Amino acid sequence: MDTVLRGNSTTDKFNLSHHCHLSNLVQTPRRGTAVMWYNHHVDPRTGWLGDIDLMSVHGGCDVVRGEKWVANMWITAPYDNWKGFPSAYLNWEEYRLAELAH
């Protein structure tokens, strides 16, 4: 895939306050909808978390009109060499019990 730089190449392309209109994809919000994406490729050898997908780099544009509501839900997936370890997102009691069982 070829990368095409538009505008002045000396400016900060990651400053979405100035360059949001140059994005490859802009999702117009609609009430009651959500956007989801994966940040990693699947490792074809193991089926677990693979390399970071550089095409998943993202950001939010400034609000032009109205309000902006955002909620994040991080769904973690382990790398192959960590698949036997308990999740760091368990509460402390669940983590302790998982460690005892390990």
Give the beta-strand count.
Answer: 2
Largest sheet: 2 strands, antiparallel
Q: What's the number of structural domains?
A: 1
Q: Detail the poorly predicted runs.
A: 1-7
Structural class: little secondary structure
> Mind telling me the C-alpha Rg?
19 Å
Percent helix: 10-25%
Physical arrangement of strands within the biggest beta sheet = 1-2
- Helix and strand element order: HEEH
Distance between the termini: 45 Å
Question: What fraction of residues sit in β-strands?
Answer: 5-15%
Shape: elongated
Number of H/I helices? 2
Mean pLDDT over all positions = 76
Please describe what this structure looks like:
- With 102 residues, the protein is low in regular secondary structure.
- It has one domain (1-102).
- Helices cover 14% and strands 7% of the residues.
- The protein has 2 helices and 2 strands, in the order αββα.
- It has helices spanning 16-19, 92-101, and strands at residues 40-42, 49-52.
- Strands 1-2 form a two-stranded antiparallel sheet.
- Strand 1 and strand 2 form a beta hairpin.
- The longest helix has 10 residues, at 92-101.
- It is elongated.
- Residues 1-7 have low confidence and may be disordered.
